[in-house]
Each structure stands twice: as C-alpha cells, then as structure tokens.
Specification:
Length: about 80
C-alpha cells in the first residue's frame, strides 16, 4: 500500500488507510508505538496494559471518591 508523508505544522504525518484502521481496530486517538527496525519505520498498536498504567497514573485526588461515604446510605444488618 503506497502512502505519502504530509506536513502537519512542524512535523510530518502519515494518513493510515481506512482498510488498515478497520483491520487493526483503531480509532482516532488510538495510542501507537513507533519504532525504527531494520531500516523500516514500524507502527504498532500500544499494549493496552501500558495504556491502563498511564491512565491510572493520571488519576488525581479530585478523581478519587471516598468509599466509606459512598456506602453511608446503604442499609446495614
């Protein structure tokens, strides 16, 4: 499949054909690992576990909820 680099501000971008996007199950904003291997630029979907770790690290105290307060309205005994 032949694609061309395009200028995007001060960077270069590659448009990924719809057929490949569908085959890989990607959507806009999907994280990709990019590497240079044996003279080739290689794009791979990122490992979901790595993405989950990044999301967990981004949790702020504002995002956390007091679990005890969440259960105060539940009947006991």
């Amino acid at each position: 499949m032949d694609v061309r680099l395009a200028r995007w501000d001060n960077s270069l971008a590659v448009r990924v054909p719809r057929s490949l996007v569908a085959e890989l199950g990607l959507v806009g904003g999907s994280p990709l690992d990019v590497s240079f291997e044996a003279g080739a630029l290689v794009f791979r979907p990122s490992d979901p576990a790595v993405e989950l770790e990044r999301l967990v690290q981004a949790i702020t105290p504002y995002d956390r909820h007091d679990l005890e307060a969440a259960y105060d309205d539940f009947p006991t005994g």
